[in-house]
Amino acid sequence: MNKSRYRLVWNRRLGALVAAAETQRGVQGEPGQAEMGQGGTPLKSKASLAVLTALMMLPVGQAYADNYASGGENGTTAVTIGGAASAPTASTGGTFPAVAGSDGTSQNEAFGVNSTANGGAAVSVGDTVSATGQNATAVGSNSTATGTNAVAYGGASNANGTNATAIGAQATASASNAVALGSTATASGVATVAVGVGANASGNSAMAVGLAATASGGSAVALGNSSVASGGSAVAVGQSSTASSAGSVAMGFGANAGSVSGVASLVDDWVSGSTGRISTVQAGNTAVGNAATANGDGTALGTSTVATGTESLAAGGGATATGRVGVALGGGALASGDSAVAIGNTSSSEGAQSVAIGAGAEALSNQATALGNAAFANAANSTALGQGAIASNPGDVALGAGSVAAAANPVSSATVGNTTFSSFAGTNPTSVVSVGSVGNERQITNVAAGQISATSTDAVNGSELYAVAQQVDTLSTDLSAVSQNVGTLSTGLSTVNQQVASLASSIQATAGTATGTNSMAVGTGSTASGANGVATGNGAIASGTNSSAFGANASASGTDSSATGTSAAASGTNSSAFGANASASGTNSSATGASAAATGNNSTASGANASASGTNSSATGASAAATGNNSTALGANTQASAANSVALGEGSVANEANTVSVGSSGNDRRITNVAAGVNPTDAVNMSQLQGVQDSVNSVARRAYSGVAGAVALSMIPDVDPGKTISVGIGSGGYQGYGAVALGFTARISSNIKVRGGASTSSAGTAYGGGVSYQW
């Protein structure tokens, strides 16, 4: 007989059929008794699975259970038939390879020790499993499914709620329509979804996908390992990203859209293009880029950008906007004051309502304004306009490159020859306007005539001073000349009107093609296809949104781009190209000068044939080249090819990372006016080095003199045999230093001899002594 086959037998104590292997026999030949092994141990292995298989094949309404309890039949292990199905434990400590139960009315099915199924069409499979509710299903040891259509699948899984689903070891779905997929995943809010090991979705309608992802805000979405979306309707996408305020959006590894209360946001358009740009954010925080951080309705765009001020904006690698409504644009730009604006690489605007525009520009006090590369305004209400301009006193204005505004100098009177002039107006100035510096003065031209009166504080021009020197009787002649000039002006205006009419006709004749919304094209063959685009010049093309192309064959294809000059091209977003054949293809790039090229993102090329191809690079000067990331080449023919390198001065080459070069091989330069170094990494000047050399020379002099003294002592003759005392003089020299020595030798006995002496030199005196014992 095949031992793997089973048959149905009658158990008289249970009053029901049970499945048993054909090899088993009951006690006293009864088919209802299970065959026991040695010592009363029930037979297990394949028979256990056969019992479950047989029960599943029987019609609904009957329950079957084989009893393997020690000591023979045990009626307490039979399956209860009624409104609920269960597989009970044996009261005498029996073990059960497989037990099952089924009721005859509600179609509940229970498989396993202590397994229960209640509620109608409920199914429980496994030891200590509970399925309670219409169509509830629980599979796995210690799993629980409570609620209509609830499903729990996996060891210790728990689905508690209508339509709740928990799949995975210790997965928990504890609210209606909640779904938890993955080991220890938890979905505790209504209609929540948690997918991934340890994922947690607790806010209603929230979704958490990824290892340890957390979505605790209502309708929040967290996508990515360890991502957190805790604000209402917040979205966090990327590993370790955090969106903690209502409606905030954080995208990218470690991105952080921080806390602000009572603010909602709506992202109309998700992501456009490959750059990860959020196209429209109506409210809330936006952080886009690796390690970007945004709080308080702030917007942070770029790697390591920080926008923590209320409604602040930071764009560009490392840009920081911490002030309320602050704006920081450019690599390393800082806007820390409220309503502050910093535009340009490493620009800094730290005062309230301050403005700094230009690479390295600084506006450090309230309402200060600095415009131009390295412009500096560090006092309240001060203004510095131009490269390197400095306004360091409150209210001062420095106009022009290199201008310096000094402190105000009150003047109440002046003496010329023997005449003293006084009663001046404006004798208490509060600030200064400077148009140059000492040795670099400028003329002020095109000055309108100022009012002349006892109280006037207007500036006067040269013509007013000239008029003072004229005779009064020439006044009528001057008036006549003025009248003639007015007539001439009238004739000139008539001519201008005619020229304007002619120009209008020319413009009509040379109009180009403008197909973009609100666009304009002027010139034969010109085209403006981008919205708000302007193309001026024969063959000019403005295809980017908000783009401008001025000049023959100029092309502006990037969004917000501008190309000015013959064949100039601006293809990067926010790029600018100025000059014939100039090219700006990098994002936020700027090329100024004939054939200048700015191809790196956030790069700047200024000068004929200048080239800036590295990210955040800057090349200034004819044929200057900055190819390394974050490199700077300043001067004609300079080259900065390594990362973070700086080349200063014509022909300088910086080809090693993190270095500053002021020349090249065979073309060295001195660095002058260097302050004395203080810190371990500071540069030292020649005076510090000379001090070290002086110390070395002093030590050398003493050492040389000491050697000469030692030589002089060694030259003193010893006491001769048979003599008792010898006194002598010796001399010595070394490296140009001399010494003289006086010494003695005394024989105390035939075995003991004593010796002593002293030498003197320009460095001091040396002495010595010794005793010897001989035998």
UniProtKB/TrEMBL annotation:
One example of a Gene Ontology biological process annotation: protein transport
Gene3D superfamilies reported for this sequence: 1.20.5.170, GSPII I/J protein-like, Serralysin-like metalloprotease, C-terminal
Keywords recorded for this protein, A-Z: Cell outer membrane, Membrane, Protein transport, Signal, Transmembrane, Transmembrane beta strand, Transport
Region: Disordered, residue numbers: 552-627
Keyword set includes Membrane: yes
Protein's cellular compartments: Cell outer membrane; Cell surface
Record-annotated Trimeric autotransporter adhesin YadA-like C-terminal membrane anchor domain positions: 717-775
Main location (coarse class): membrane
ESPR domain span: 1-34
Trimeric autotransporter adhesin YadA-like head domain span: 131-155, 159-183, 201-227, 229-255, 298-319, 335-361, 366-389, 514-540, 542-568, 570-596, 598-624, 626-649
Highest rank taxon of the organism: Bacteria
Keyword Transmembrane included in the entry's annotation: yes
Residue ranges constituting the Trimeric autotransporter adhesin YadA-like stalk domain according to the UniProt record: 443-486, 670-710
Entry GO CC: cell outer membrane; cell surface
UniProt similarity note: Belongs to the autotransporter-2 (AT-2) (TC 1.B.40) family.
Protein name: Adhesin
Organism: Caballeronia mineralivorans PML1(12)
Taxonomic path: Bacteria, Pseudomonadati, Pseudomonadota, Betaproteobacteria, Burkholderiales
